[in-house]
């Protein structure tokens, strides 16, 4: 133990010597006399009875805080001129001296009795001032000043002065001994607390003096001594007889108001920084204090008094040397750390973890959430946002100071952000274990902070867009994208591309831009996804509670089991309340106008950057964007992470759906252009659901909001030249593409996507430019348009059939369940009730689609009747119309009657009127008239008469339209007669002349190259519209590959000619027979 203590003493003395490594009085005065040097040594120590054990150990030598060397010229230390030009203090361990006086450069020598050669006034002032500043007393009866402050009686110093016969007054020469004695006998007050109060007072005194004032040097020396002892109190508390503390003594003082006597003020920090180069322990002490601040904050939430910690760090990072020191802390950037521990185990983690989304804070804002009305929730969310905005502003200030303090701290700050996003890839997993990732609040704070770091380069003219380096990801980027799905490249292609490293160094704008993109993906977008899942989970839990409550009657007679049942119910309800509180809190955070506007501005820059990538050489946005995009896709775009586009889509979908009011018209142009560009050249993006998000953005953008009947984007879609030129083709192309998405839900997904496409088309249909474009599309891209029409027809057929079938089921099941005579067993009744519920849900879903698809069919047939009466289309269209007309007005139409049809969006009269409009739109097309008449399954002249009666009774059509409908019905009858006669004239048709799929006489037979089957051209064209394979052997097939069967065509024509001649011959015979 003795050896250990001896080692400790050696270490302590070494540190003291290091602090006082400058030369003693002779060096200080640049060759002063021996008398002057001696006068600078410490006076004899205090008596043994007043000393602490540590002081007794130092009795052989004295700690003298001597004045520094004043070097000529400018110091390399940027802080050397602070504090009135005073350089750093030095500490000497000097032998005991009998002198109690001190002489300083620039100051008149003080005699042995304490008087000055110029008179006694400065000595008296020095004595009075030092006593007032340090609250000292050399008179044991004088223990309180005129302001009521306690004075510290210095018994040891008084005894020494008496023994030496010196004047009983305080000087800078005996101040060091006085400070050591007082700081070692403070009782409950710590040395640092006492000395910080002294520092405030001496600094105020110092600022009030000019260098030419003879009092200036006295106060300067007292100030220097005070700072030195403050440093001792922080770094060597054992010097004052204290046990080593568990944490830095500086920590708690950093939390105080800097203007308070216990706080750390600017003057203190400036002076401490000026001594960094001479004493590493000062730097280490500050870093240790910041680390302790971080550790303490990690155990707190926003419910606690966290703001002093934020203010403390904000104050410290204003000083570049402190930032440089903090950045060197092992806690700033740990080498190995998990996502779950980032918030507590990194130096900045606890500061960014502060959020209203912390456990306990959400329930504080939204206690008993089910009982709260909307007003309370809205007010709580506003309060939450105000608190969070203030905190995020503080975080930005901290980060800005770190970034601006130097290259190394800036690099480490960026590394910390990168570490946070790279460690949290699992936040975007399908199933997220919250214990393995960082919290939503932490990641949202990072995202918002990075958004704000981007603001300086995000001007309205995109003047700095070219500073975003396209080669950044090929240059050892900070963000990890290796495992990310790419926009249009597989893993091998991506690895090859990023394996080719780019030269050069990435600039700060590029670093922040790509970090912000990643932060949005793993931060705000992940929180949004979690919110959507949480809403579904809450609905499921509430339904589960309702189901459990139904079993209460089973336990009413068993008190023990009933208690257990109630406890289980309470646990479920508490869980729901907790989830509901969190939901309201997340909504409050995400639905913040300011942060979302900032986020949207960043996404606008991402959009422009992406458009520049896909249009090399066009210099967008300075030059207009031209479509279509090049067939050869830029490799840099193909290999981008998918989330670069997903972030944009997710962000604008959220804003369009929840807060469209923050979108301005100037921010929408680029968004619309991106949507149209990537839908028009859809091959640039592999993921169909990502492309469907572009449709959803425009769909939400045309929803009526406030005083804008066509939503945020409706007017723009009708006025922007880029949109009027390319939008319609883009929508039609994607309408075709979503027929096959590759997912197991593609059948249902396509209807949802097409519903949104229909709404957009309805919004722009009043614009004649679009209808002209549609006509042009039908003429120029005939095959493309036929595919679109075919799929539209498929959809109308399917959804109409599903809707009407569902209504028939609802009608029949409702009658059965209401009829008391059926006397159904409970199991059968339950089964039928479930079937009824299923049919009702089906009717609701499909009827909405039915209304939209029929309306779209009406619009398109009105504009392009020619396209809907092409050979490969017209018969299917006629069959579909006849079938549904029969269902609505035929003998079984009464089966469609249901209670509350509006609940299903079912208006049978309006639907009938639109179907009739389609007939009337095509009335001038002769092949359509014959196609209707040729429908042997559903065509019935009586249906047209019944439809006319309904329209007339309910005034669904004008007299002119009713007349046209009646005339059309007569034409159908005549065409039917002609068609029947033609079929009769042909008689028995050889099977080889019949189409193998439709069993009709072939008009244009062709041979399929793979199966060698002969089929009518219109039939195979119709088949290939929905299936690109040979119908007989499933081999890939294109319409260009079929070969005309000229031999078969000649034989069919010969057959028809023969039959025609037979008919004429028969007619002639009849004409020449006698009457």
From TrEMBL:
Region of interest: Disordered: 1-119
Q: What is its subcellular localisation?
A: Cytoplasm; Nucleus
Q: Which SUPFAM superfamilies match?
A: RING/U-box
The record ties this protein, via SMART domains, to:
Ubox
- Keyword Cell membrane on entry: no
The record ties this protein, via PROSITE patterns, to:
U_BOX
Task: Please list the GO biological process terms of this entry.
Answer: ERAD pathway; protein polyubiquitination; ubiquitin-dependent protein catabolic process
Q: Which residues form the U-box domain?
A: 988-1062
Q: Which UniProt keywords apply?
A: Coiled coil, Cytoplasm, Isomerase, Nucleus, Rotamase, Transferase, Ubl conjugation pathway
Pathway per its UniProt entry is:
Protein modification; protein ubiquitination
Query: Which GO terms of the cellular component aspect does the record hold?
Result: cytoplasm; nucleus; ubiquitin ligase complex
Q: Tell me which stretches of the chain form a coiled coil.
A: 524-558
Per the record, what are the reactions this protein catalyses? S-ubiquitinyl-[E2 ubiquitin-conjugating enzyme]-L-cysteine + [acceptor protein]-L-lysine = [E2 ubiquitin-conjugating enzyme]-L-cysteine + N(6)-ubiquitinyl-[acceptor protein]-L-lysine
**Per its UniProt entry, which superkingdom is the organism in?**
Eukaryota
Report the InterPro entries cross-referenced here.
Ub_conjug_fac_E4_core, UBE4, Ubox_domain, Znf_RING/FYVE/PHD
**Gene Ontology MF term list:** peptidyl-prolyl cis-trans isomerase activity; ubiquitin-ubiquitin ligase activity
Q: Where is the composition biased (Polar residues)?
A: 21-64, 87-104
Q: Which family does it belong to?
A: Belongs to the ubiquitin conjugation factor E4 family.
The identity of this protein, by name, is U-box domain-containing protein
């Amino acid at each position: 133990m003795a050896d250990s203590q001896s080692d400790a003493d050696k270490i302590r003395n070494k540190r003291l010597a290091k602090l006082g490594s400058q030369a003693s009085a002779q060096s200080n005065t640049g060759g002063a006399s021996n008398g002057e040097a001696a006068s600078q040594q410490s006076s004899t120590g205090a008596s043994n009875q007043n000393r602490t054990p540590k002081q007794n150990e130092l009795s052989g030598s004295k700690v003298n805080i001597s004045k520094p060397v004043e070097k000529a010229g400018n110091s390399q230390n940027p802080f050397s001129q602070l504090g009135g030009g005073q350089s750093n203090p030095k500490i000497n361990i000097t032998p005991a001296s009998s002198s109690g006086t001190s002489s300083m450069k620039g100051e008149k020598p003080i005699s042995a009795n304490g008087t000055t050669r110029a008179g006694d006034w400065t000595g008296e002032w020095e004595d009075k001032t030092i006593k007032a500043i340090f609250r000292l007393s050399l008179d044991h009866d004088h223990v309180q000043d005129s302001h009521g402050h306690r004075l510290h009686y210095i018994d040891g110093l008084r005894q020494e002065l008496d023994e030496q016969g010196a004047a009983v007054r305080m000087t800078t020469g005996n101040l060091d001994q006085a400070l050591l004695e007082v700081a070692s006998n403070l009782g409950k007050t710590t040395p640092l607390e006492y000395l910080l109060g002294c520092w405030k007072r001496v600094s105020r005194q110092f600022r009030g003096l000019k260098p030419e004032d003879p009092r200036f040097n006295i106060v300067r020396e007292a100030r220097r001594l005070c700072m030195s002892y403050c440093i001792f109190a922080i770094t060597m508390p054992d010097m004052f007889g204290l046990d080593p503390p568990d944490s830095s003594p500086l920590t708690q003082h950093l939390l105080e108001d800097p203007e308070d006597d216990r706080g750390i003020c600017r003057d203190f920090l400036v002076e401490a920084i000026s001594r960094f180069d001479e004493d590493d322990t000062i730097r280490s002490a500050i870093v240790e204090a910041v680390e302790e601040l971080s550790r303490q904050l990690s155990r707190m939430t926003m419910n606690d008094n966290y703001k002093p910690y934020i203010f403390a760090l904000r104050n410290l990072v204003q000083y570049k040397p402190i930032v440089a020191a903090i950045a060197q802390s092992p806690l700033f950037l740990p080498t190995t750390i998990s996502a779950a521990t980032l918030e507590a185990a990194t130096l900045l983690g606890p500061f960014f973890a502060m959020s209203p989304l912390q456990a306990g804070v959400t329930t504080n804002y939204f206690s008993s959430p089910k009982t709260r009305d909307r007003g309370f929730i809205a007010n709580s969310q506003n309060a939450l946002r105000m608190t969070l905005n203030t905190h995020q502003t503080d975080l930005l200030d901290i980060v800005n100071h770190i970034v601006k303090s130097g290259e190394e701290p800036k690099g480490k700050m960026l590394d910390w952000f990168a570490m946070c996003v790279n460690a949290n890839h699992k936040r975007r997993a399908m199933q997220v274990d919250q214990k393995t990732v960082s919290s939503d609040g932490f990641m949202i704070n990072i995202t918002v902070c990075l958004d704000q770091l981007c603001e300086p380069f995000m001007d309205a003219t995109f003047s700095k867009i070219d500073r975003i380096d396209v080669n950044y990801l090929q240059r050892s980027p900070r963000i990890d994208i290796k495992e990310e799905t790419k926009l249009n490249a597989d893993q091998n292609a991506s690895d090859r591309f990023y394996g080719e490293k780019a030269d050069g160094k990435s600039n700060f704008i590029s670093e922040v831009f790509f970090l912000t993109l990643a932060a949005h993906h793993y931060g705000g977008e992940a929180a949004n996804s979690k919110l959507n899942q949480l809403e579904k989970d809450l609905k499921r839990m509430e339904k589960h509670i309702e189901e459990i409550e139904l079993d209460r009657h089973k336990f009413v007679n068993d008190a023990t089991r009933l208690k257990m049942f109630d406890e289980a119910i309470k646990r479920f309800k508490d869980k729901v309340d907790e989830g509901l509180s969190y939901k309201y809190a997340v909504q409050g955070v995400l639905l913040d106008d300011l942060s979302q506007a900032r986020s949207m501005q960043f996404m606008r820059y991402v959009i422009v950057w992406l458009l520049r990538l896909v249009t090399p050489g066009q210099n967008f946005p300075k030059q207009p964007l031209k479509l279509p995009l090049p067939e050869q896709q830029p490799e840099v775009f193909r290999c981008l992470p998918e989330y670069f586009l997903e972030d944009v889509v997710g962000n604008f979908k959220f804003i369009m759906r929840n807060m469209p009011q923050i979108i301005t018209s100037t921010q929408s142009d680029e968004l619309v252009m991106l949507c149209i560009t990537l839908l028009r050249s859809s091959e640039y993006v592999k993921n169909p659901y990502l492309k469907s998000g572009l449709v959803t953005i425009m769909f939400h953008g045309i929803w009526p909001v406030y005083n804008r009947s066509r939503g945020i984007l409706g007017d723009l879609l009708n006025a922007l030249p880029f949109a009027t030129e390319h939008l319609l083709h883009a929508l039609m192309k994607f309408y075709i593409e979503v027929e096959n998405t590759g997912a197991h839900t593609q059948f249902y997904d396509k209807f949802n996507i097409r519903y949104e496409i229909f709404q957009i088309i309805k919004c722009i249909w009043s614009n004649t430019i679009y209808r002209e474009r549609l006509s042009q599309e039908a003429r120029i891209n005939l095959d493309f348009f036929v595919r679109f029409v075919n799929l539209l027809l498929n959809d109308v057929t399917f959804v109409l059939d599903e809707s009407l079938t569902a209504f028939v089921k609802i009608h029949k099941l409702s009658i059965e369940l209401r009829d008391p005579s059926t006397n159904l067993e409970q199991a059968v009744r339950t089964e039928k009730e479930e079937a009824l519920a299923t049919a009702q849900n089906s009717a609701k879903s499909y009827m909405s689609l039915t209304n939209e698809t029929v309306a779209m069919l009406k619009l398109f047939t009105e504009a392009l009747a020619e396209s809907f009466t092409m050979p490969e289309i017209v018969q299917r269209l006629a069959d579909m119309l006849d079938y549904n007309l029969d269902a609505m007005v035929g003998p079984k139409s009464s089966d469609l009657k249901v209670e509350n049809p509006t609940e299903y969006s079912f208006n049978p009269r309006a639907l009938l009127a639109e179907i009739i409009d389609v007939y009337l739109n095509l009335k001038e097309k002769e092949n359509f008239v014959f196609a209707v008449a040729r429908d042997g399954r559903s065509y019935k002249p009586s249906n047209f008469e019944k439809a006319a009666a309904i329209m007339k009774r309910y005034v669904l059509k004008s007299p002119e339209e009713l007349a046209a409908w009646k005339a059309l019905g007569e034409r159908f009858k005549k065409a039917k007669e002609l068609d029947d006669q033609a079929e009769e004239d042909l008689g028995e048709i050889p099977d080889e002349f019949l189409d193998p799929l439709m069993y009709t006489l072939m008009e244009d037979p062709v041979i399929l190259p793979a199966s060698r089957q002969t089929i009518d051209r219109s039939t195979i064209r119709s088949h290939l519209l929905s299936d690109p394979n040979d119908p007989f052997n499933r081999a890939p097939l294109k319409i260009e590959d079929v070969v005309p069967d000229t031999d078969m065509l000649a034989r069919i024509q010969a057959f028809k000619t023969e039959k025609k001649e037979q008919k004429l011959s028969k007619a002639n015979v009849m004409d020449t027979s006698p009457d």
